[in-house]
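Appendix C: a fully annotated inverse folding record. The material below is reproduced so that readers can follow the format used throughout the book. The structure is listed first as C-alpha cells, followed by the designed sequence.
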C-alpha cells in the first residue's frame, strides 16, 4: 500500500521531488545543495526526510554509492527484494526485482535458519547505451 503524497511533510515532499527529478542517484549533500533555496540549512533536515521516505518505501538507498534514488515503482512492490543495476559510466540506476533470485535467497535462508531483515543487490557495470557507445 502506498500512502498518498499528502502524508508527506513539506521537507519530505521537497526531498522526494529532488530525487524524482534527478537523472541518477543523489547524495544527501547534493540534495541539501539543491534545496537551499527552499529553506534547507542542515544535513539533519535532509536525513530526517530521507529516513521517513526510506521507511515508507518511496525511495531506496544505494549502499555502494551512499546515495539515494526515488523508487521506480512505488505501487508495485512492498518490502520484497529490490535489485539495482548501476552504470559506472553514466550513473544511471535501473531498479528491478526478480522472483527467482528472491525464491533462492528465501530457500537458503530457511534452510539455514537465517532470518532476513534486508537484502541488498547492486550490480555495477555498464548500461546498454554506454556499452554500445
Ligand atoms: Zn522501488
Ligand atoms: Zn550508462
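Designed amino acids, in order:
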Amino acid at each position: 500500500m502506498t500512502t498518498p503524497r499528502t502524508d508527506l511533510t513539506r521537507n519530505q515532499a521537497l526531498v522526494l521531488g529532488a530525487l524524482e527529478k534527478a537523472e541518477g542517484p543523489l547524495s544527501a549533500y547534493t540534495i541539501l545543495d539543491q534545496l537551499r533555496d527552499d529553506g534547507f540549512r542542515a544535513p539533519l533536515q535532509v536525513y530526517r526526510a530521507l529516513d521517513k521516505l526510506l521507511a515508507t518505501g518511496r525511495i531506496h538507498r544505494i549502499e555502494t554509492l551512499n546515495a539515494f534514488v526515488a523508487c521506480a515503482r512505488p505501487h508495485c512492490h512492498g518490502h520484497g527484494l529490490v535489485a539495482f543495476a548501476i552504470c559506472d559510466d553514466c550513473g544511471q540506476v535501473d531498479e528491478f526485482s526478480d522472483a527467482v533470485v528472491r525464491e533462492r535467497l528465501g530457500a537458503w535462508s530457511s534452510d539455514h535458519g537465517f532470518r532476513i531483515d534486508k537484502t541488498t543487490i547492486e550490480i555495477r557495470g555498464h548500461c546498454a547505451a554506454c556499452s554500445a557507445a
